[in-house]
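User: Before I run my own analysis I want an independent prediction to cross-check against. Here's the chain; please return only the structure tokens and, at the end, one sentence I can use as a sanity check.
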Amino acid sequence: MLNAGCVQIMQSLLNTYLNSINADYIEALEEQYLKDPDSLEPSWRYFFDGMYFARSGKDRPAAHDVGVKDLEFEVKVLELIQGYREMGYLNADVNPLDRGTKSHPLLKLAAFGLKEEDLDRPCEVGQVLGLGIAPLRNILQALTTFYCSPVAVEFEHIDEPRTRNWIQKRIESRVLAKPLPVQQKLRALQKLSDTEALETFLHKRFVGQKRFSLEGTDVIIPMLDHLIDYAGLMGADEILMGMAHRGRLNVLANIFHKDLKVMLAEFSGNVDANVGDGDVKYHMGYSQNVKTARGQNVHLSLMPNPSHLEAVNSVLMGVTRAKQKLKGDVDRTRTLGVLLHGDASFSGQGVIYETLNMSELKGYTLGGTVHIILNNQVGFTTCPSEARSTPHATDIAKMLEVPIFRVNADEVEAALNCISMALQFRYRFKRDVVIDLVGYRRYGHNEGDEPSFTQPLMYKQIANHARVRQIYAQRLIKNKIIDEASANQMVDDYQQQLEASLAEARKAKVSPMMHAFGERWEKFHKITDKNIFSKVSSGVKSEDLQSIGRELATVPEGFHPHPKIQRFLADRQEMLEGKRPVDWSLAEALAFGSLIQQGHPVRLAGQDSERGTFSHRNSVLHDFENGSTYTPLNSLKTPKSDFEVINSLLSEYGALGFEFGQSLANPDKLTLWEAQFGDFVNGAQIIIDQFLTTSVAKWQRYSGLVLLLPHGYEGQGPEHSSARPERFLQACAQQNIQLASPTTPAQYFHILRRQILRSFRLPLVLLTPKSLLRHPQCTSPLNEFQKGSFQEILDDVDPGLKEKAKRVILCSGKIYYELFDARPKSKNPDTAIVSIEQFYPFAKDSAQEILASYKKAQQIVWCQEEPQNMGAWAFMQQSLLPLLGAKQTLSYAGRLPQASPADGYLALHLREQQKIINSALGDTP
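Assistant: Structure tokens:
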């Protein structure tokens, strides 16, 4: 039995131990121990047995009859075990360029109060590792094998006991060192041989051409091959991949089985480039149906991407979630997203944080994305110490309670076991998982670069370092799994295939395979000059509008809306009864509801979009008494689809990319992204430039995404006024997007419905109102929703001006109403006011017809709120000048050029606004 001194010493040791570990984690384990000791991992059960004995002198089960010194030793060894579990990765053999024995101060024996002479002392706590009573030497050796091998797992940042225990049990049962079947070893060698053969062939045959070689992380090819096979075994029938340029060509050839003839034609310049403007070969996407090693069918998609590193991440996530929903894949097992990253970009690009933050939010979760970092240990020429403030590229991923695997790129079998365990985690916990594949880059950033200028020591080492195929082949030869001749033949056979493909590629122009209108896109067409202005009947029958509207204005029995919401719903009812015209909010809800009843799902995501930034939408109602929620658009009596509204994370870049991905996957869905204020869209400029406005020209990828950007000058300052329409207009070409600014609720209703009823898909950027949401004139009678279609230009409402007007003002948005209000008091009340509702594609025929209809008009004025160097002036000037009559002149009314998009002082704003109105109407002295 322990004496009092022994108990005191043990208590002191336990307190020290407790203080070194997360208190919340310990408390959770203790609670579990008190309920069911046997449910705990053995080492923790042993720990709490000792702790309760130390506190009370009563043990459960029986106390060990050991002396004070022996007990102190046992606890120190227990601390050692826990130390290796939490920090063993610090000594892991994961760097192929540094295979020596590692020694970290925190893992030295002295750090736990132990000495070299203790190594042969037997320890009872060896039982927690399944070793029985074992010498400390054996325990240390086991811990090194488990936690410091060429594959290590970092999980000390995880607080949740169930997750930690799951990881720990698998590591200590040696799943990461599990021997592979012979067939799997040979398949891995074949993949490595194909990988090396392709890179060597391209290096010799196309000297100096950029290919962004994979060499140094070649093992990613057998890893991806195994991932596809293993995911297929776990239920996946579709895998989507996103990656940057490094290694992309090898992934296309040896994972996606892209026709080598096409790839080599791209290198030799013998491609029939007859579609779009195209992109460089290491940015292009690809799709393919493949059979796994076990014979299962899996569809693979590699997302096209730009050079903006990591920009594709959220796009892939959006596509993945949309496909899961299309399949009814509620368990998120059938469609898997895989992202390949660079080490410098993973730690350096802000979108990484945004997408990781998305991963477990209800509107964005995918059931876990597999992240694999191709860690070259260098950026372009930048060393890790210059590129990040953390020890590891993966440290940002610690924000999620998920394991981080780190594996040596020269250790093939460890890498494949790492994939297996990572997928097991993803499928069990439905969360992201991160693999840091530590390798190197055999050549420079591109093949024309000389890396030894900046990393001379590293590249001397790399020059003498054997390739992974050679290392693995020699290992298999030594173990008599293959002979040297057969191993070499694998490389020779693939090189012969490459030679034959190159000969074919040089015979005649090769046409690239296009996937623009396959599967769900089969019924859609390209945009042409002929169909871009074709009218779509977007009206809805009166009885259908009334039915939808009544349901939107009604709440379930026993639901208690906020008193102001009750008034909001009552107003809607009056609009439906014709007692008052329809406002912007109801117009939107009717557009959504009518599309849902026609079988088109609607997804709206943005910052505070459920309520709406201006309290105008209220698409999700909250019970004022108990906080429960009710979504009217999901409670329609005869819905054929559903409504999804998401209060997004406070993100623009990642959030817009996600919705762009949604729109790629399901063209039948109305997908909308809303900025809190239109100004904030500049945070997503990379997605706009690299995907939204260029994806068709570069990759033949179409999207019907709608951007809702609140825009209007109301004295709220530089960051709450302008959606920067000039930036969109500058990007407008080749009918790539639509930019519109509807000024009435009916116009908004029709353009939303037109977006989904057309036979083609084109992104739609809408400048939406703020103050006009409650403007008494910004309304529409209900009958305007029953017939007609969206009008690109709205002529003056007074037809009598056709014969009288000498001045015609063209404008857009909020200023239309200000001009309309000021006109009766003007010196020129016979001025016509025409609203440009769609800037691009510009309806030049309609514009010319309208201008010509004003027989006496000689002064044509473009009026805008924005500064002259912003807004639509430059675009409209270029568009209108060719349309003017012989005696017509074009002038500008608006703010002078400014550096900032808007005034910061309300008084100044009001003065400027009045000057614009006076100038446009010709009232300026």
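Sanity check: The chain is about 40% helix and 10% strand.
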